[in-house]
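User: Please run a holo structure prediction.
Assistant: Happy to. Please share the sequence and the ligand.
User: Here you go; the ligand is zinc ion.
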Amino acid sequence: MEIFFGIYFFIFGLLIGSFLNVVILRLPNKVNMVTKRSACPKCGGQLKWYHNIPLLSFIFLKGKCAFCGTRISWRYPLIELFTGLVAYWLMPNELSTMALANSFFYFSIACIFICHFMIDLDHHLLLDSLNLYLLAILLSYVIFYYNWPFWVLGGVIGFGAPLLVTWIFYKLRGQVGLGGGDIKLYGILGLYFGPTGIMFTIFLSCLVGAVVGLVLIGLDKMTKDKPMAFGPSILLVAAFQIFFPQYASIIQSWLF
Ligand SMILES: [Zn+2]
C-alpha cells in the first residue's frame, strides 16, 4: 500500500512540476496560464497532449521538438523530476486531515519557491503575485499557531531591516542594493520565522549571496552592468530553515 501511495504522490508532483514550468515561462510575461496551448518557442508548432507528458515526452522525443527538432532545455524535465521528488518527500505519513493539510502547506511553499527561484534567475524579478500567494499561506499558518507579537515583530524586522539598509546604501552610494521584491520576500518570511529566525535568514542569505557573487566574478560571469539575482540566495536559506529546521536551528544557535 505504502509504495502505491508513494508512486501516486511522485506522479502528482511530476504533473505539478509540468505546470510550474508553464508558470515560470508565462507568469513574468503575463501570458494566460490555462487557455493558451503550449507551443515550441522556435517553430511555433502546437504541442499535442502526448508531447506534454512529464518526463516521458522528453525521453521519447530525445529532448527535441517533435516538429522542427530544436533542442528542448534540460531544465524542463529537471524541474518536473525535482517537483516529483519533493512531492514524494513531503507526502503525508498517514491519511488524516491534519497530515494532508501539513503536506499541502509545505508542498505549496516548495512550489512557490521553485517558481520564484527560476523567474528571478531568468528575469531578476520576484513577482508580487507569487509573494502574495506565499503571504496568504504563511499568514494562515501563523495566525493559528503563533502568538501575534512573534510574527508581527518578525514581519517588521524582515521588512524594515533590509529596507533601512537599502535606504542608507542608496543615500551613501546612490545605488539601489536590494530590489523591492527581495525586501517584500524578507518581510513575508519574517512572519513565519519570527524575530531571530528572520535575522538569521538575512545574515545567512547575504553571506550566501556574497560567496556566489565572488564565484561568479571569478568565473567572469558577472559584470557591473549585469548584476546577479539575489532572490535565489534568500530562497535557498529560507528553504533550509523551513525544510531542515533541526539543522538550521543548530547553526542559528552558534550565531545568536
Ligand atoms: Zn519546434
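The chain is about 70% helix and 0% strand.
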